[in-house]
Amino acid sequence: MRNVAIAVLTIIFVVALGADVLSPASYKEQFRQAPNAGPSAQHPLGTDELGRDRLSRLLYGSRISLMLAPAAALLATAIAAGAGATAGFLGGRWERTFLSATDLSLSLPWMLFLMTVRALLPLDVAPAVSIAITFLLLGALGWAGPARIVRAAVVAMRRSEFMLQARGSGSTGFRIVLVHLLPNLKPVLITQFLISIPVFILSEANLGLLGLGVAEPMPSWGSLLRDLERFSEVRSNPWLLAPAVMLVAVVICFQIIARPKDLAT
Amino acid sequence: MGLMPGVLIWSGRIGRRVVGLVVTALIGALFAATLVRLAPGADSDERDFDPRFSPASIHALHESRAADRNLARYYVTYLRGLAHGDFGVSYSLKRPVRELLADRGLTTLRLAGCGLIAGWALGLALAIVATQWKVGGMSTFTSGLSAMLLCVPAALIGLLVLAARAQWWWAIALIILPKVYSYTRGLLEKVSTEPHVLLARAKGLGRGRIFVWHVMPSVLPELLALAGISVSLAFSAAIPIEAVCDIPGVGQLAWQAALGRDLPILVTITLLLALITRAANAMADIAIAALHGDAQREATV
Predict the structure, then answer these.
(1) Residue B210's closest CA among B194, B227, B222, B226?
(2) Which residue of A has its CA nearest to B163?
(3) Is the previous residue joined to A217 through a cis bond, with omega within 30 degrees of 0?
(4) According to CATH, what is the number of the domain B101-300?
């Protein structure tokens, strides 16, 4: 299962990265004579209401979602690693402050908090800026859950024998963190990174569906899913489901990869 | 005599949760006040650009808003308003936020409440059937369904429910179900292999009896913790669902407020939902402590 998921993801990644070469047209090029057209040789997934090629938009949108969700996950994991490791290693007052901060952060309704912060920023920003804002926000706000797990792992390590031995042999705090703690945290951080990616993909999709994600004309899976709001047309135009199918496939693959190896086989 | 330490421990435990709620409210209010105060345009309104107002009148208007410029003073004013149930006035709808929430609160409560009940009932039932009564193929089907639902954005689930013309709360139920199912299933599988359950099975106890008397008591505390978290999940999911399904609830109001940069509405809803989440988690924690009987144990030590 795990190998199949990796293979499917690799194919989708390669196709998304090659959007410039594989797309029949640019994501913003309008074919004004053919709005809302069905599939054809020129437009394999048809065109949208503005006459833009759906396949091209799907490929470019995949590239944005697939490149930036891991970037946001990396940011969230980095913040989680810094905050969780510091709190777990120093303990005491630092740990209590950290736990209160994560408690507060986790009690905030994530979606609403994201919408509130997004609403503070201009809605009519340049598409590239909207992409950066959306994923930076996702990364910056998604740290609390992973940070608690990192802290728990560090607390367990702090009490472990190898740490006691390192301390006993005269290692200082900085050396202990760099040489002993971080290398042993790697599996936890990798798992948290992999778990965060589908969460951010789904969050971006929700934001995009609500019109608060990546700005037009730039496509993303969230903004492409807005076509499904005309659900009465889906039965006669099933190709409208392509972004949903792609999104679900990618999220399933990430979830399979993030699961422990013994469960994923 | 023996009751007193127990009462003290319980008072301390409940007191700590109440303090947690108050701290959340205070920090949330500070966050809210800061956002409202620092938002672009917070220091002006359309009257500043009304040609009918003289420069002197506009200056007077600016002076009247001067008190709000100091964040600390604004925070105190904001807190005083909150204490009296005054959440401010919506920028876009020009109505008190309290009135808007009162109009729509019941719809969201019904949506989240029914969805939570249905999601929990279905999730628990499927997990129990999959682990205790291993019906052929059922486990694979339910696990596949649950994994699939976990991979669909909440807004898309809302659209699916709308297309199926089902009751709206089904969308919340379908979001809660996979989380309850996968978590409960994992717990049940783990507990079913524990020594006390194996011993009960070796003694020849019936499947139902083992489940009710030996398995459930072991998983109940974790399920209660999940129940606390699922309240927050349901309310968060209500936002995209109400927005795409055109349900006139608090979630739709929050979405419209986000599009219209109406911060008084957004920060009030964020604050209220944070409090609901903390309260639900606190109740779950207290229930878990009651189940474990920690108070009695600690009292006797």
Answers:
(1) B194
(2) A231
(3) yes
(4) 1.10.3720.10
B270 and A116 in contact (C-beta within 8 Å)? yes
Which residue, among A111, A236, A253, would best test binding to B if mutated, counting the most B CBs under 10 Å from its CB? A111
Residues of B in contact with A255 (CB under 8 A): 147, 150-151
Q: Tell me what ipTM this predicted complex has.
A: 0.77
In the structure, what pLDDT confidence band is assigned to residue A261 with cuts at 50, 70 and 90? low
What is the Cα–Cα distance from A183 to A176, expressed in whole angstroms?
Answer: 10
Domain borders along chain B are 101-300
**Is A107 within 8 Å of B24 (Cβ atoms)?**
yes
- Interchain contact B261–A (C-beta under 8 A): yes
Structure tokens at B73: 């003073």
What is the reported pLDDT for B59? Answer: 75
Angle at A113 between CA A110 and CA A118, to 5 degrees: 125
Specify whether the CB–CB gap between A132 and A213 falls below 8 A: no
Distance of CA A170 to the CA centre of its chain: 41
pLDDT at A56: 92
> What's the mean pLDDT in A145-149?
88
pLDDT tops 50 at residue B296: no
Higher pLDDT, B246 or B36: B246
CA proximity to B233, closest of B260, B292, B273, B198: B273
Q: How many CB pairs under 8 A join A and B?
A: 119
Under a CB-based contact definition with an 8 Å cutoff, are residues B158 and B245 in contact?
A: yes
Token representation of residue B166:
């089902």
Find tokens 């072991």 and name the residue: B218
Can you tell me the distance from the alpha carbon of B169 to that of B108, in angstroms, rounded to the nearest whole number? Answer: 10
